[in-house]
Amino acid sequence: MYRQVSPPMSPSDPTTKKPLDIVVKFALGVFVGSFALIWGGMYLSRPDRSIPPYTVGSQSGHVVATDVPAGTKDDQIERLLERFRKVGHQTRDFGPMKIYPTTPGDPGGRYTRIVIYVFDDHRRTDPEVLAKYMAGDVAVVNDYERSMRGYYQLKDQNEEGGIGTIPKNGRVTSDTRILFKGLVTDPLPVEAEVEQGISISPL
């Protein structure tokens, strides 16, 4: 009995699957690789939610003026100060905290001495205002200090941090609540080592 046999498909048959061209494969690889790099960069640079967002408004030598958003609560500022404290204890490198070396060229290190003021008003961190404060301008000093929300200072091995106005000449007023004071060689308390979330970036 005669049976009709279909002829084999020719290479030009539209139903035949063609392998992807090398150029198409390369383009797809570049696309997928670019997407992975972008996603990875966004993941690594995502804001650190364990501390309030802050900005370094100005820096003069070892003195740094930072500001946090208006309405930032004291406990949030306390977490920021604890972060500065942790850096002082562990690496003493405030570069990742967006602060330029405060004692460049010092044989003891690039951050042998540092004073950080925290405000919730960006106008207080203007370079000209900081310069007037450091120069002792009477019209600026009192208001500048009353506006402080917190401070951190480190000199050699001694550190101190608190909420409110930084003490002057060792005198602590009712406007200041000292959070910690001691040596950076002292062990950190457990609560200072606990992170509120995953820490990747300072901002």
Number of domains: 2
Number of strands: 6
Strand order of the largest sheet: 1-2-3-4-5-6
Number of helices: 5
Rg, rounded, reads 29 Å
Please provide the ordered H/E string of secondary-structure elements. Answer: HEEHEHHEEEH
What general form does the structure show?
Answer: elongated
Q: Portion of residues in helices?
A: 25-40%
Give the termini separation. Answer: 83 Å
Sheet of most strands: 6 strands, mixed
Assembly state: single chain
Secondary-structure-based class equals alpha+beta
Mean pLDDT: 82
- β-sheet strand percentage: 15-25%
Poorly predicted runs of 5 or more residues: 42-47, 192-203
Main features:
203 residues; alpha+beta; 2 domains; 6-stranded mixed beta sheet; 5 helices; 19% strand; elongated; disordered C terminus
Question: What does the secondary structure layout of this molecule look like, with pairings?
Answer:
Blueprint: H1 22-44, E1 55-60, E2 63-67, H2 74-90, E3 113-119, H3 127-134, H4 138-146, E4 150-155, E5 158-164, E6 176-183, H5 190-193
Parallel strand pairs: 2-3
Antiparallel strand pairs: 1-2, 3-4, 4-5, 5-6
Helix pairs in contact: 3-4
Gist?
The chain has 203 residues and is α+β, with helices and mostly antiparallel strands.
What does this 3D model show about the protein?
The structure is a single chain. By secondary structure, this protein is α+β, with helices and mostly antiparallel strands. The protein has 2 domains: 30 residues; 139 residues, no CATH class. 30% of the residues lie in helices and 19% in strands. It contains 5 helices and 6 strands. It has a 6-stranded mixed beta sheet with strand order 1-2-3-4-5-6. β2, α2 and β3 form a beta-alpha-beta unit. α3 packs across α4. The longest helix is centred in the N-terminal third of the chain and has 23 residues. The C terminus is likely disordered.
